[in-house]
Amino acid sequence: MADRVSDNAYGCGCLLFLGIIGYAVVVFYSPHKDPDSTDVTAASQASTAVAAQLALGLPGSAETRIQQRGGFNLEIFVAQRDFESVSYPDRTSFVKIVGTSWCDHVEKTWFPSVAIRDIRSGKELATYNCVLSYASLD
Predict the structure, then answer these.
(1) Residue 77's closest CA among 65, 69, 87?
(2) Which of 39, 43, 107, 121 has the greatest number of beta carbons closer than 10 A?
(3) pLDDT at residue 100 tops 70
(4) H helices, E strands: number in the chain
(5) How many whole angstroms separate alpha carbon 101 and alpha carbon 122?
(6) In 101-130, which positions are buried (b, 16+ CB within 10 angstroms) versus exposed (e)?
């Protein structure tokens, strides 16, 4: 009887471990794939909110592109000079405002984040993590 219990516990432990590994793979893979059409539809209100915040924070920026990725991740491409036109002390709060305008409207199952990148080089300028509500400047 004791052997059966330990075998079942070992089997459950292995399944739990495999489930955690599978979840981690999806979380790390999803930002690299294109979103499903249902995800794009579900995040349309979030995209509108982000566009409005970018228009307020970066007025006159002609080079802005918003690109949704899998797992409700978001990449925003702006000219580095436009991003740097926001004074340095205000950049973190600007990233938080843009990030929360996205994160407040999307599902957080897959730990989404918002990345702001230079439109010319692709260099990451800032990130916002939806689950941790943390903004960082690169």
Answers:
(1) 65
(2) 43
(3) yes
(4) 5, 5
(5) 22
(6) bbbebbeeebbbbbbbbbbeeeeebbbbeb
